[in-house]
Amino acid sequence: MNPSAPLNSNLQDMRPLSPAAFFVLFALADGEKHGYLIMQDVKVLSGGKLQMGPATLYTMIEKLADRSFIEEVENDSQDRRRNYRLTRAGKQLLNAEFLRQNEVLLLAKVKKVKKVFPLQGKA
Asked: How far apart are alpha carbons 100 and 97 in whole angstroms?
């Protein structure tokens, strides 16, 4: 993947990613998972700030699958759980989002932004 290559319109339309989309893709970055494990990984990866219920998770899975960013994995066993994995486009989208976030952090560094908003309860 060439990080400087222009994104196709399907990828560009998704950016910036919503937190739910980002963390579902991020959870799948290290391999295929079933829904419950995706929910657990989202909670861990977000530091507990995003806790998805089944309805939110499966709505997001459906949206990402409809756009071909993730796909259901064929299951040969009797296990009824559905497993999902990133597609090539999903990997490109996640990579593009990581690059976008990095660019924002670099801009903040250039502007010497330390703290723009006071912490809650502190002036």
From this structure: 5
Distance CA 39, CA 114 (A): 32
Tens of pLDDT, residues 58-110: 999 999 999 999 999 987 777 788 999 999 999 999 999 999 999 988 888 88
* The two three-digit tokens of residue 85, written as one number: 């994995």
State phi, psi for 38 to the nearest 5 degrees.
-60, -45
**Phi and psi for 81 in degrees, rounded to 5?**
-70, 145
Residue 117 CB neighbours (<10 A): 5
Please compute, for residue 53, the number of CA atoms within 13 A of its CA located in the half-sphere on the CB side. 1
**d(C-alpha 73, C-alpha 40), whole Å:** 19
Q: Which of 5, 26, 7 lies closest to 98, judged by CA? A: 26
**pLDDT at res. 90:** 96
C-alpha span between 31 and 123 (Å, rounded): 44
